[in-house]
Amino acid sequence: MSRVVRLLFCLFFIHLVNIARASPLPSDGWFWRTGDINSFNKKLPAEMSADFLLSKVAPAVKTSKLVGVSIKSWPGFSGRYIVALCVGDGENVENIAGCQSELYFGIFEMEAAENSNNYILLARTENKVSDEVNWKGSNISQEENKCLNGDANCAIEKSFPDEWNYIDSATFKISENIPTFGMRASWAYRYAGSSSGMASALYLIAQFGKKLKVIFAAPMSYSETIEGEWNKSHTLKSEEHFAVENYLIVEEKDTAGVKNIILREKNGKWRKRYKWNPIERMYFSD
Amino acid sequence: MVSQNSGDIQPDINEEAPAGAVYRRVDSRGVVVLRHETEIGEGPDAKIVYYSVYHHLGIISEKAKKLGSQIYRKELIGCPGRVGGQPGIHMEIFCSEKNLKKIIGRASDELDYKNKNGRKNIVYGDVHFYIPATIKSYSFQNDIPPLNKATPSSGGEVIGVDLFLTMQFKKGQVELHSRIKSGDEYLKVEPLNNKKKSMSAHGNSMAHYEFSYHDYEYDMYLLARELQKLHSTNSCSSIYELLKFGRVINSENEADLSVDVPHWHLVTLPNKSQKWINLHHLDIKIFSDGDFPPWMGWKFIDGSKDETSQCTNKIILNVLNDGKGELSMEKIAGRLGDDFVKHKFSKMICKLRSEWNDKTIMKMESWRTKKSNLNPQPIPESEYNGNFKSDAVKLCFWQDLLNRNNSIIPSGCLCGHKINPEEVISKKYKGSDGNLNAAGKKLAVNIDIENGEIDRSVRAYEPLLEDNLYYFNPAAFIEHFSKNMWFSNHELAQAIPRIYYSYNGDSEGKGAVNYSTALFRAAHVLNKKNAFNKMVRKYGFSEKIRLTHLLSQELTEMFMASTVEEIGGGHQQSRNGVLFWPQPAMEYYQAFYGRGHMQLTWPDNYAKYGDYRSKRVLPDNTVGNYVDTRITMSSTHYWVNPKDEEKATKKKAIPKQWYPRYDPAKLVDDAYSSADSGGWYWISKIVSSHSGEINISRHADLSLDSSSVGSVSVFVNGGGNGYFDRQGFSIYVKNFFLDEKLNEKSIKKDIARPTKKGQITKSVSVDFTPQRKK
Predict the structure, then answer these.
(1) How far apart are CA B94 and CA B701, in angstroms?
(2) Considering A145, A264, B175, B589, which has the largest number of Cβ atoms within 10 A of its Cβ?
C-alpha cells in the first residue's frame, strides 16, 4: 500500500470509528457541572463519566468538588486524550469561560472494545497544578500600578493564574522522549468602569512515565484598554490601548537532548531563551 | 456661637506678686462659646448638640465676635491669652442631659452590658464584646480556627471570668485587647506570649485563603468569602458585617445571619494565655465606642450637689489619693502629672453647673479663703472680695450664654438651612418660556423632598441649655469623636469643591458648584438615605486619609456627586443624524453601563457584587422585566471587554445570558446598594496581580501624595479618566478634612500621569474657596 493510500485508509478508518463508537471529539471548551456528579451543561462523551474521570485523575478529591471537565485529543498522539479537571467549591460557574479554581490533568488512551470504548489512564498530575508563572525578565509587566509609577522592580514576582482557559491544540515537540502539551491561562484586570486588561500565560505539561509535570510557565500576552478623558458632553475623548504578544519558538538547538524554547515579542525586539534543566526536568531562562 | 468680650483683664505684670494672686495672671479679652449641631449616626437620637468654650482668649476674630456667626471647621476664632502666667486657654466641652442621652446612649453610669447589645444606629470606633464567664475557649492545631464550625464537638473550657474584649482595626491590621473587672476597675490583660506575633503571613488571594492575622483587615473580604463558602445559605456581605462589627448592623439592608457562622478570634484570657473564642454567640453582647463602655474608662461623676468648686467628689479624691496618708496640695500636683490619673480624669463625664455663673461663683470659690491641707495659702478676705471678685465676675458668661442660646440664637443655624431651588435649577431645566421642563419638574420635586427632610431633621436637635450640664474632657472628647465619620449632609456638602479643576483631554477648565447644589447632591445623591455614611462605616473609611482618597474618587466617578449613573446610559449618540458609540467599549457593555458610587460596569462586576450581597437581598428577577429593556429573559451580554478577552485567550468571546439575575437598576434605585457597591469594589479589588493581594486601602493608607492618589485612580478605573481631576479633589478635600492648618490660598501643582507610552504632566490648579452657604 502506498503512503497516500495508507493515509486515506487511516483517515477513513478513524472517521468510521468516531461515528461507530461515539468517541469523544476534541472539545475546545469546558463541560460545566450543573447538578449532581454526572449532570453537565453539555453531554460528556460516553464512557467518560465525571466520577470515572475524577476517580482516575484525582481520587482524593470528593465528587462534590468537581466543577468542570475539559477533554481534548492530544495533538500528535493519536488515540490519546488530555483531560483537565476543574475542582473547587462548587461556585456558580455557568458564566465563566475557564476554570477559576484548582486544576488536575490526566492522559487517557482509548482502547477499542467490541461495543464500547475503554479509556485507560496513562498518566496524571499527582497534585493540583501549583506552579506559578515567573514574570521576571518578561517583556510583559503585570504589576500595573507599580510600573506606571516608575518602580523599576515592578515585575519581579511570580503569580498563579486567575483562570485556566483551554488546552492548547498546538504540538510542542521538544523531544522525542518527552510528550508535551500546553494549557493556556489568564489574568483579568477588572476596573469598576469600562477600562479592562488581560494577561495570558502558557503552561507546558510533559509526561514522564505515569506522571504529568509542569515543565514551563511563562507570560505570553498582555492587553489593556484604558478609558481616556471625557469631553464636556461626557463622551469619551480618547482611549488608550496597549498590547504585547509573544511567540513561542521551539529551537533546533537543544540542551541535554531537549530543544531550547525562545519567546519572542511580536513586532518587537524582546526575546528570551529557555533551556532544559535535566535535573529539575523543566525549563529555566538564560 | 456665643461670644463675650470681657475686655479689661490684663496680665499680671508683677512677677513678684504673692502666690495668692495667681488668678491675676490671666490675659483674657473674652470667651467664645460654640454651639455644635451634628450627627453621630442614624435617626433623631443621633442628632446631637454640644458646646465648646474657649476662655481666656487674647485675641478674638472679628467673625467670632459676632453673635450667632456660623463658624466652620478649622476657622480661626481667636488666639490664646494667658492662664496661670502661661500662654493658653481654658477649654470646656459640655452638653445638656437630653443630649448626653443621645451622645452616650444613657444618662446614668449603668450600661446594661450583660443583657443588651449596644446601639445599632450609632456605631463607630472600636468594637467591644462582653464575653460572659460561661463562654468556652478552644485550642486548635497550628492555631487555625475551624471556619466551618461555630462550636467544636469536643474540647473547650469555660473561661470562668467575665471578659471585655476590644477589637480595633488600624491600617489593615486588627488588634484585640482583653480586660477583666476587678471591683470598680477594668484591668487590661496582656498575654504572656503573644502568639499572633509569631504567626506567619500566608499571602492570601482570591484563589487561596488561609486564616491569618497578618493583614487581617485588608483580607477581611477573603475571610468573609471563605466563611460564606462554608455557610452557603448566608450572605457574604452580612458575614463581612459580622467580622467588622461583631454583628449585622445594617439589618434593614442586609440578610440575617445564621448562628452557625463563626467569628473566631484568638483572645487573651484572664490567665494570660491565648485561646480561640467564637464571638458570634447569643450570650456575648456587642458594643462600639459609640456606647461609651465603662471598661474603656468612661465614668460618671455627679458634682451637681457640690457646694464648692473644689471637686471633693469621693471618686475624684480616691483617684488623686495614692492611699499613702492624707491628700495635700503638693500631692495633688504630683498626681495630676501621673499618666494613670490623667487617663482616669480624661474619661470622666461630670455633671456640674457652670463655674462661670456670677450668681454662684463667689460661693463656689469661697474655699479659697479657708486654710486647709488642700489650700495652705488662703486668700485674704479683702483680696477675695476685691480684686478676685472683680476679675471673677468679669469672666462669668453663663447667664449671657443661657439667655443668648435659649432665646436669641435659633436652633439649626446650618443644619436647618434649606436648598434654594433657584440656585439648583439651572437653565437646562427650563424651556425657552422659562417654565420648568420635565427634568426640571422632577428636580423641583426632589428639592422639595429634601427640604422637607431638612425640616424634619432640624426638629431633632435639642439645643436648650439648663443649669445642669455634663462636661467632657475636651481632648478625650475630640479624640473619641475623631473616630466617628458619620456626616450630616451639610457637612458632606462642604466636601464638594466650590470651584473645581477639570481636564477633559484637550483643555483644562474650572467648574463651580454653589452651596445649594452641593447640599442637594449630598442629600439626594451622595448620601441619599445615609448610604454614604453607612458605606464609610462598613468598609473602614474611618481614617481621614482613606476617606479623602475615597471622596476624591467618588467625586469623579459620580460627576461631582451629581449622579450614580453613567451619563448617556450606555446608548449610542447621534451626530449629524449618524449614530455612533461615544466610546468603543460601550458597544459591548451597553445595558451594563456604570452604576453606583464607583460606576460598576460590565456584567462581570455586577454579577460578582450580586453574589456578594446574595440572592436574599438582591433576588433573582424571575419576572424577567428589567428597567433597561436591552436586558431580557433571553438577551446575552459580554461579561468583560471582549477585545481584551479575545487577545488573551485567542478564543472568540461569547456573550452570556444575564437573566434571571437581579436588575442592575438596583444600583441606581436602591441608595444603599448604590453606595455599598462602591465600598465592595474598593475592598475586593485585586491590587497586585503577582501576589493576588486585594483591597485598595493598602495603597490609600500609604499617603495622600500624588503618587498614592494616582495608584488609587489606577485601581478604580485604570487611571485614564479624570486622573488629574481626582488629584485636584484630593488636595481640596485634604485641606478641609485633615487637621493641618487650613490653606486659604489657591495652589497649582504639577502632576505627572505615567502611561505605557510616556508621561503626561499637567499643572493642576486647586482653588481652596470653601463650600459655604451664602
Answers:
(1) 34
(2) B589
- Read off the pLDDT of each residue in B318-347 and give the average, rounded to a whole number: 88
- How far apart are the C-alpha atoms of A132 and A154, rounded to whole Å? 17
pLDDT in tens, B558-610: 999 999 999 889 999 988 899 988 888 999 999 999 999 999 999 999 999 99
Please provide the average confidence, as pLDDT, over all residues in chain B: 91
Look at A139-148, A258-267, B241-250, B468-477 and tell me which has the smallest mean pLDDT: A139-148
Name the minimum distance, in Å, from the CA of B140 to any CA of chain A: 24
Q: Which of A143, A155, A193 sits opposite B594 (nearest CB)?
A: A193
Which residues are CB-contacts of A282 (< 8 A; sequence separation ≥ 6)? Answer: A213, A214, A215, A216, A276
Whether the per-residue pLDDT at A239 is higher than 50: the answer is: yes
Query: Which residue, among A196, A233, A240, A248, would best test binding to B if mutated, counting the most B CBs under 10 Å from its CB?
Result: A196
| pLDDT at position B388 over 60 | yes
Helix ranges restricted to H, B231-323: 236-245, 314-320
Q: Alpha carbon A229 to chain centroid distance?
A: 37
B714-741 tens-digit pLDDT: 999 988 889 999 999 999 999 999 999 8
Q: List C-alpha distances in Å: B102 to B114, B122, B247, B352.
A: 21, 9, 22, 18
* Half-sphere CA count of B357, side-chain side, radius 13 A: 16
CA distances to B7, B45, B130, B355, B356 from B390, in Å: 13, 42, 52, 15, 13
A34 part of contact set with chain B, CB < 8 Å:
no
B293 or A100, which is more confident: B293
A149 closest CB neighbour out of B645, B650, B710: B710
Whether chain B has a CB inside 8 Å of the CB on A227: the answer is yes
Which residues of chain B have a CB within 8 Å of the CB of A245? 647
Chain B residues inside the 8 Å CB shell of A89 = 229
10 Å Cβ neighbour count for B238? 25
For residue range B246-261, what is the model confidence (pLDDT) as tens digits? Answer: 999 999 999 999 999 9
Chain A (59-118) residues lying within 8 Å, Cβ to Cβ, of chain B:
89, 91-92, 94-95, 97-98, 100-101
Q: Mutate which of A130, A168, A194 to test chain B, going by most B C-beta atoms within 10 A? A: A194
Contact B717 A227 (CB under 8 A): yes
Set of cell numbers at residue A13? 478508518
Residue A5 cell numbers, joined:
493510500
Angle, nearest 10°, between helix axes B236-245 and B531-538? 70
CA distance B52 to B95: 9
**CA–CA distance, B598 with B249 (Å, rounded to integer):** 23
Render pLDDT for A223-237 as a digit per residue (tens, 0 to 9): 888 888 877 777 777
pTM: 0.91
What is the least distance, in Å, from the CA of B197 to any CA of chain A?
Answer: 26
pLDDT of residue A146: 54
Per-residue model confidence as pLDDT tens digits over A268-286: 888 999 999 999 999 998 8
Which of residues 166 through 225 in chain A touch B, CB cutoff 8 A?
A: 166, 184, 186-200, 221-225
Query: What pLDDT does residue A22 have?
Result: 38
Distance from CA of A4 to the nearest CA of B (A): 34
The answer to whether A192 contacts B601, with C-beta atoms less than 8 Å apart, is yes
ipTM: 0.80
- What's the pLDDT score for residue B648? 82
Q: What is the 3-state secondary structure (H, E, C) of B329-369?
A: HHHHHHHCCCHHHHHHHHCEEEEECCCCCCCCHHHHCHHHH
Q: Enumerate residues 6+ apart whose C-beta is below 8 A from A232.
A: B504
Q: Return the half-sphere exposure (C-beta side, CA atoms, 13 A cut-off) of residue A62.
A: 6
Residues B165, B131 contacting (CB under 8 angstroms): yes
- Chain B residues closer than 8 Å to A243 by CB: 647
